[in-house]
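Support reply, case 0932

Customer input (verbatim):
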Amino acid sequence: MTPRSPSATPRLHWTPPQLARPPNNPNVRFRSLVAVSLGGNGTISRVVNDRGVPANSGTNVAYLVAYP
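Our regenerated output:
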């Protein structure tokens, strides 16, 4: 059997809708969060639920000061 070359290996791109998806509850709180798209591969659409900006190849790091 001939081994596959690295260029022939399929790449998996996963785009999670958010970094964390906690329950929508006033007792759940987050402070000083950061989401990082390592190497700019893939996209994290939001940091927590519907809050925060995307982390992707254009902006590798997304910060969220507080949730909610």
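We compared this against your earlier run and they match. Two observations from our side: Residues 11 and 41 are 10 Å apart (CA to CA). DSSP finds no helices and four strands in the chain. Please reopen the case if you see a mismatch on your end.
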